[in-house]
Design goal:
Helices cover 75% and strands 0% of the residues. The protein is mainly α and 306 residues long. Helix 3 (68-99) crosses helix 7 (158-185) and helix 11 (254-263) packs antiparallel against helix 12 (268-301). The chain is flat, with a radius of gyration of 24 Å.
């Protein structure tokens, strides 16, 4: 006969409320409430001040779904999402595997790889905008090396701009992935690699058969963070390409579209509607990823009280 479970006493309930209450209030005040207010303002044509009175219903949302500029921005977000996973993931895993070995200057190399991640997006965007402009340092270096034929307009050419953006994103964010993977590798017992070495496995065979499979949960968490970040990308695009050039260069995102068509156009109601659409898209993708990818990791971590 199974023992009866004890109910939670008032003291435990008060303790739970005291510990979780502040976090819940912050979450409601800075996440749930702004989303609800954005949904409310999205039903109005609102100038950003005063009480909204021009109710338009679902017109803002219909306009968003029919606007080709939003379709382009959504497509660019999809490209950034896929390319971030394809480019940053393998590079970060390779660097993490190499830096996980003992070598001279290991700590310095780790710091140098991680430094771009902690630099402000404003500084990164401004610096790369100057480097990659037509008369910037990148083209000057190419000319000095006798590669004048390779000189391009890296920021304005629609065929190159998305790749310039991906290079900048990889340079900035790969350090975070490397540190995350290195942290995950610290949880892998050294005995496994030592046993594989005794059995005659090479370094790369050990990484393929032992390290990577055990690192898979960390990789899935990084992929989730990368997906959400790609969907909400704004700052670097807006700083480097500006509010108008981004659309013509093929680097606009849903977030830059929201600011351009909302705040900059003086139509805050429409901007709030775009924010709601962006939130819904991000939430749906996050729930799908949680359901089909992260579930295998969380199921083993959750245990039922007995």
């Amino acid at each position: 006969m199974r023992p009866r479970r004890r109910g939670i006493g008032w003291a435990q309930r008060l303790e739970i409320a005291a510990l979780s209450g502040p976090a819940i209030l912050v979450f409601v005040g800075f996440v749930i409430f702004p989303v609800l207010m954005a949904a409310y303002y999205g039903f109005y044509r609102w100038k950003g001040f005063g009480v909204p009175t021009n109710f338009v219903g679902l017109d803002n949302y219909v306009t968003i779904l029919q606007d080709s500029s939003f379709h382009d921005a959504l497509w660019h977000n999809g490209q950034i999402l896929m390319l971030s996973l394809v480019l940053q993931g393998p590079v970060a895993v390779l660097l993490a595997l190499l830096l996980n070995r003992r070598m001279r200057g290991q700590s310095v190399i780790r710091v140098l790889i991680f430094v771009p991640y902690v630099i402000s997006e404003v500084i990164v965007g401004t610096a790369w905008a100057l480097i990659l402009q037509t008369n910037g340092a990148a083209n000057d270096v190419l000319r000095s090396l006798g590669l004048g034929g390779v000189v391009q307009d890296w920021l304005a050419n629609p065929k190159l701009a998305i790749w310039s953006l991906m290079f900048i994103l990889t340079w900035k964010y790969v350090g975070f992935a490397v540190i995350l993977f290195l942290a995950g590798m610290q949880n892998i017992p050294d005995e496994l690699s030592e046993a594989a070495a005794v059995d005659g496995a090479s370094f790369w065979q050990t990484q393929r058969r032992i390290t990577l499979p055990l690192l898979a949960p960390t990789i899935r968490i990084w992929a989730f963070l990368s997906i959400i970040g790609s969907l909400q990308l704004f700052d670097l695009v807006y700083i480097i390409w500006g509010q108008y050039v981004a659309s013509t260069a093929g680097t606009s995102t849903m977030a830059t579209y929201m600011v351009t068509e909302g705040r900059n156009a003086g139509n805050y109601g429409y901007g709030n509607a775009v924010a709601v659409v962006l939130f819904i898209i991000s939430m749906v993708i996050a729930l799908i990823y949680q359901r089909f990818v992260l579930r295998r990791d969380t199921e083993g971590a959750l245990t039922e009280g007995r």
